C-alpha cells in the first residue's frame, strides 16, 4: 500500500455528512465509478466531482462522514481518485468503513485549522506527518492502533478475513484429524 | 473494578472475563443484518473474495426496506440480488418488501433479545440497545466479514450516562428526550462512545419510546445507545423471543466518561431545525414556520404508539371540522406490516385517511429522500424521522424539521409548526 501522498487541497467544514458525500438518490447502485461521479454533490463544493483532479486531497473539520452507514461514501471518495482524507475527527462508521476498504484517513486537528483551500500538501502515513508545501510547516497526525494498521496494510478487511477463514479451516482440520 | 452493561456484553462475546475502554476486540455476533441498500455491496464483496459460505444462515437477517417496493429499475436489481443471495444460502430471516423497516421489524419478531451483540449495515442499528443489547451500525465490508466469519472487530467504547428524572409534560415523548440530549452534547458529543440512558423517566417510558431514544444515539455520534432491561423489557421480549436472553446491568462502581442528569419535567416538545439534529428549539419558538409536507413514520417514530398519538391529534381536528391543511401533504407510513395491521384494527388508518393523509406500505422511503415523498427545491417538511441534513429528504435546498409524532400531526393540521395543544386543547395531564 502507498503511504505517501502529495496533492492539492479541497477544504470542507465540520460535520460533512454522508448525505452530502453521496446523496441517497444515487444509492440505487453500488458501481464505484458511478458513485464517484456524484461524490460531494450536496456539499459546500458541489463542483468537486467535476473539477477535482486525480490525487487531490480532502481536508475537513470535525465529524467527517457523519450519518448513514453507507460504505458508498468512502468508496465514492476512493474511486474519485482521492488518495487520503485529512480531518479533525471522523464519524465512527465512516472511520470503520474507510479502514475496511483501504482508504487512508488521518486525524490532524491543528493541520486542518491552518491548511487552506487550494494549498499543496504532503501526507506521510508511516511517519504520521502532514506538510503544508505553501508554508513549509509540518503537523503531527494521530497514529492508528497496530491492529488497524494491519488491516490497512492487508489492503482492507476482506483480504484479512480470507486469511482468518483459512486459519479456522486449518484448525478444524487439525481437530478432526487429531 | 466494575463494568458497564456495554462492557459486560462485549466481554461475554469476546470470550473474556472483562474488557476496558480503548481495547480492540474480536467479538462473536448473535445477529448480522443488512438491507437492500447495504447488502448488495456486501454480497459483491463476498463474491469478489470468493467466499461462498456464510457462518450461520440462522444468524443473518436481510431486510428489504429502503427503496422497495422498487422505486426504479436499479432498485429492483438490488432487491433481486438480495433475494437470490437469501435463497442460495437459506437465510432464515429474509424479509420481503413491506414486512417492515428493519429496526421496527427485528425487535418485533423477537430476533434481538437482551444481552445480544448485533451488527447491522445500517446506522440506526443502535435502536436495539433499547432492549439491553449491544447493537451498532457498520458498513458493508464489516457485514460481509460478519456474514463470513460471525465476528466483528470493535474498539471497546467508553460509556456516557444520561439520567432523566421527573414527570413528562403533556405531549412530550421519548423523541424529545433524545433531541434534548443531542441538543445538549452536539452531533459528535458521543463520538465513538456508548450512550447509556437511565432514570425514573426512562423507566416510565414504553418500549416504543425507548426504541426512539436508542435509535438516535448515532445522531450524537454514538457507537450505541443502551437502556438496561427491566420488567417492561422482559414483558416485551417474552412473547416474541426466538432464543434465550440474558439480562445485564451496569455495576454501581462502573466507570463513565461523563454523567449527565436532567430534569425531564422541564422539557417541552422540541423541534430540530435544519441542518443538524442538534439544532434543537422548543416548539413554542418554531410556530412561525410554514410547512409543505409532514411525514409520520421511519425507524424512529413509525411504531404503533407513535401512530396512536398522531391519530389522537387528527381525531381532535376532525371533531372540529379540520383536516390536514390544504397547503400541506401529510404522509403516514407504519414502520412494519404488523404495525399497519394493528393500526387498521384500531381504526387509526381510517382516521388518517379521513383527515386527508396519504398512507403507504412500510418503507424507509421519504426519510432519506428515497421515494414516497421526496421534497422539491425550497420545500419544507416536518418529520418524525431522524436526520435533517442538507438534501436528506430531497432537493439540496429543501428543509427538514424533526419532531415527535404529535407535533408533526398538529403541524400538518395547522399548516405550520404547531404544539399539539393548539389542535387538541390543554386536556392532557402528562406524557403520552
Order of helices and strands of chain A: EHHHEHEHEHEEEHH
Shape of chain B: globular
Protein chain pair with the most extensive contact, residues per chain: A-B, 46 and 54 residues
Protein structure class of chain A = alpha/beta
Terminal CA distance of chain B: 39 Å
Percent of residues of chain B in beta strands? 15-25%
Number of helices of chain B: 15
Sequence of strands across the biggest β-sheet of chain B: 4-3-2-5-6
What proportion of the residues of chain A form beta strands (DSSP E)?
15-25%
Summed up, what is this model?
The complex is a heterodimer of chains A (178) and B (432). With 178 residues, chain A is α/β, with parallel strands linked by helices.
Care to describe what's here?
- The complex is a heterodimer of chains A (178) and B (432).
- Chain A is of the alpha/beta class and 178 residues long.
- Chain A contains eight helices and seven strands.
- Chain A has helices at 18-21, 32-36, 48-51, 72-79, 92-101, 109-114, 146-154, 157-177, and strands at residues 4-11, 57-60, 85-87, 105-107, 120-124, 129-132, 138-140.
- In chain A, β5 and β6 (129-132) form a beta hairpin.
- Chain A starts with a strand and ends with a helix.
- Chain B has 432 residues and is an alpha/beta fold.
- Chain B contains 15 helices and 18 strands.
- Chain B has helices spanning 5-13, 39-48, 73-89, 102-108, 140-149, 174-185, 200-204, 207-215, 231-238, 298-301, 304-319, 337-345, 348-354, 405-414, 421-424; strands at residues 24-28, 31-35, 60-63, 93-95, 117-121, 134-137, 151-155, 159-165, 194-198, 224-227, 258-263, 270-272, 280-282, 293-296, 329-332, 358-359, 380-383, 399-402.
- In chain B, the strands form five sheets. Chain B has a five-stranded parallel sheet, with helices on one face. Chain B has a five-stranded parallel sheet with strand order 16-15-14-17-18. In chain B, strands 10-9-8-11 form a four-stranded parallel sheet.
- In chain B, β2, α2 and β3 form a beta-alpha-beta unit.
- Chain B starts with a helix and ends in an 8-residue tail after the last helix.
- Chains A and B meet through α4, α5, α7 and α8 of A and α2, α3, α5 and β7 of B.
Amino acid at each position: 500500500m502507498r503511504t505517501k501522498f502529495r496533492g492539492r487541497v479541497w477544504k470542507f467544514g465540520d460535520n460533512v455528512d454522508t448525505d452530502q458525500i453521496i446523496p441517497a438518490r444515487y444509492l440505487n447502485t453500488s458501481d464505484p465509478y458511478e458513485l464517484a461521479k456524484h461524490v460531494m454533490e450536496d456539499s459546500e463544493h458541489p463542483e468537486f466531482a467535476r473539477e477535482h483532479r486525480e490525487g487531490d486531497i480532502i481536508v475537513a473539520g470535525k465529524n467527517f462522514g457523519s450519518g448513514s452507514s453507507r460504505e458508498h461514501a468512502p468508496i465514492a471518495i476512493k474511486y474519485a481518485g482521492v488518495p487520503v482524507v485529512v480531518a479533525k475527527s471522523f464519524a465512527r462508521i465512516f472511520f470503520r468503513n474507510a479502514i475496511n476498504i483501504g482508504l487512508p484517513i488521518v486525524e490532524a486537528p491543528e493541520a486542518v485549522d491552518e491548511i487552506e483551500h487550494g494549498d499543496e500538501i504532503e501526507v506521510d502515513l508511516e511517519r504520521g506527518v502532514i506538510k503544508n508545501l505553501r508554508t513549509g510547516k509540518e503537523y503531527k497526525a494521530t497514529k492508528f492502533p497496530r491492529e488497524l494498521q494491519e488491516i490497512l496494510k492487508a489492503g482492507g478487511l476482506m483480504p484479512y478475513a480470507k486469511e482468518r477463514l483459512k486459519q479456522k479451516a486449518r484448525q478444524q482440520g487439525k481437530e478432526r484429524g487429531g | 473494578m466494575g463494568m458497564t452493561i456495554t462492557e459486560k456484553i462485549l466481554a461475554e462475546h469476546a470470550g473474556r472475563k472483562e474488557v476496558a475502554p480503548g481495547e480492540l476486540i474480536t467479538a462473536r455476533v448473535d445477529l448480522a443484518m443488512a438491507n437492500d441498500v447495504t447488502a448488495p455491496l456486501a454480497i459483491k464483496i463476498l463474491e469478489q473474495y470468493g467466499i461462498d459460505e456464510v457462518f450461520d444462515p440462522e444468524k443473518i437477517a436481510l431486510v428489504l426496506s429502503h427503496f422497495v417496493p422498487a422505486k426504479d429499475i436499479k432498485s429492483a436489481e438490488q432487491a433481486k440480488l438480495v433475494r437470490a443471495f437469501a435463497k442460495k444460502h437459506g437465510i432464515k430471516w429474509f424479509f420481503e418488501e413491506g414486512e417492515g423497516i428493519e429496526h421496527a421489524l427485528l425487535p418485533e419478531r423477537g430476533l434481538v433479545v437482551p444481552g445480544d451483540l448485533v451488527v447491522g449495515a445500517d446506522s440506526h442499528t443502535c435502536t436495539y440497545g433499547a432492549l439491553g443489547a449491544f447493537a451498532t451500525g457498520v458498513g458493508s465490508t464489516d457485514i460481509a466479514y460478519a456474514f463470513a466469519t460471525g465476528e466483528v472487530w470493535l474498539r471497546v467504547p467508553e460509556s456516557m450516562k444520561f439520567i432523566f428524572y421527573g414527570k413528562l409534560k403533556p405531549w412530550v415523548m421519548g423523541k424529545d428526550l433524545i433531541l434534548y440530549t443531542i441538543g445538549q452534547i452536539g452531533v459528535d458529543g458521543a463520538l465513538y462512545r456508548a450512550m447509556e440512558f437511565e432514570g425514573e423517566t426512562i423507566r416510565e417510558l414504553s418500549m416504543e419510546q425507548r426504541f426512539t431514544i436508542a435509535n438516535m444515539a448515532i445522531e450524537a455520534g454514538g457507537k450505541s445507545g443502551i437502556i438496561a432491561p427491566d420488567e417492561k423489557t422482559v414483558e416485551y421480549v417474552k412473547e416474541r423471543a426466538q432464543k434465550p436472553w440474558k439480562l445485564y446491568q451496569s455495576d454501581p462502581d462502573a466507570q463513565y466518561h461523563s454523567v449527565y442528569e436532567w430534569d425531564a419535567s422541564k422539557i417541552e416538545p422540541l423541534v430540530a431545525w435544519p441542518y443538524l439534529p442538534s439544532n434543537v428549539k422548543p416548539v413554542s419558538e418554531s410556530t412561525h414556520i410554514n410547512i409543505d409536507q409532514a411525514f409520520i413514520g421511519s425507524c424512529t417514530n413509525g411504531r404503533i404508539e407513535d401512530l396512536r398519538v398522531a391519530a389522537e391529534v387528527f381525531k381532535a381536528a376532525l371533531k372540529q371540522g379540520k383536516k390536514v391543511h390544504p397547503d400541506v401533504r401529510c404522509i403516514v407510513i407504519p414502520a412494519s406490516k404488523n404495525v399497519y395491521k394493528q393500526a387498521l384494527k384500531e381504526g387509526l388508518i381510517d382516521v388518517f385517511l379521513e383527515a386527508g393523509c396519504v398512507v403507504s406500505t412500510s418503507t424507509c422511503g421519504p426519510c432519506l429522500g428515497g421515494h414516497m415523498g421526496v421534497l422539491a427545491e425550497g420545500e419544507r417538511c416536518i418529520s418524525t424521522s431522524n436526520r435533517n441534513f442538507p438534501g436528506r429528504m430531497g432537493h439540496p435546498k429543501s428543509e427538514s424539521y424533526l419532531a415527535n409524532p404529535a407535533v408533526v400531526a398538529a403541524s400538518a393540521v395547522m399548516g405550520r409548526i404547531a404544539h399539539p395543544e393548539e389542535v387538541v386543547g390543554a386536556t392532557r395531564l402528562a406524557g403520552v
